[in-house]
Structure formats: C-alpha cells, structure tokens
C-alpha cells in the first residue's frame, strides 16, 4: 500500500482529498457547534491552573470560522497570528507531496525562523500566566479588558 502511494500521483491526490474532506467536516462541526457549550478541556490547565499557549484556540477557531477576527484575537492572540502561516505551510507541503511524492518544503524553511517561533510560543505561554495588568491581556479573553 505504501509503495502504491509513493508511486501513484492519483493515490496521493485521493489521500489528500480524503484528508481535506475530514478537515472540512471538522471545520463544519466547529462552525455549527460552539465550543463554549461543551468546552474543550485543556489537560495542562486542568492540572496546573495555568494557561498553555493553546488555551482559547478552540474558541478562537470558532470565531474565525464566523468571521469574528477580533474575538479570535482576544481568545488567543498568538494562534490568530500564526494560523495563516500554519495553513500556508500545510497547503504548500500537501501540494508538494501530491506533485512529487516527497518533501521539498521543509528544506526551504530556515531553522532560525522555526527556533524563533518556538521561543516566541514558550515566552507567550509564560507571559500569559503573569497576573499583572499588561500580561493579563494575553490570557484567553484578556483583551476584552481594554475593548
């Protein structure tokens, strides 16, 4: 099976179409059902009481799907900024895989850029847990304090 996928562009296209359909179904589900009714439980927050860098991402994605970008930014500012970059990477990577069957995209991404993003995510995760005014804005829904 893996050999057939490696050799056949049609098989890779079919697999990518199935993955896109599953992602579309997940987006439709999130569009129709609010995560505030049945919130996604963050294990890190449940155990420690601290916000992880992803806390508020489900509500932010729900807001983006409904065109409410300010709400999304208030729930998780970093994820709202990084989401277009992540989406662009996924699309480029899948198109490259469908056409060539290989991975030519990852070699073109600078390691210093990825390291910088990782450091920014870790710093963001630390800063959003400091209970002093400018840092409380980074907590989920924190920007509503000034808006």
TrEMBL record:
This protein's name: DUF2752 domain-containing protein
Keyword set, alphabetical order: Membrane, Transmembrane, Transmembrane helix
Entry superkingdom: Bacteria
Pfam families in alphabetical order: DUF2752 (PF10825)
Membrane-spanning parts: 12-32, 78-99, 111-127
């Amino acid at each position: 099976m893996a050999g057939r996928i490696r050799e056949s562009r049609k098989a890779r296209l079919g697999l990518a179409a199935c993955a896109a359909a599953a992602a579309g179904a997940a987006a439709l589900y999130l569009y129709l059902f609010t995560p505030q009714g049945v919130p996604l439980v963050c294990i890190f927050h449940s155990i420690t009481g601290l916000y992880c860098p992803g806390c508020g991402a489900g509500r932010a994605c729900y807001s983006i799907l409904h065109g409410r970008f300010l709400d999304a930014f208030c729930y998780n500012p970093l994820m709202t900024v990084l989401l277009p970059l992540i989406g662009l990477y996924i699309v480029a990577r899948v198109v490259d895989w469908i056409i060539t069957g290989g991975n030519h995209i990852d070699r073109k991404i600078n390691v210093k850029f990825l390291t910088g993003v990782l450091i920014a995510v870790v710093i963001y995760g630390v800063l959003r847990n400091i209970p002093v005014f400018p840092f409380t804005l980074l907590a989920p829904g924190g920007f509503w304090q000034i808006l």
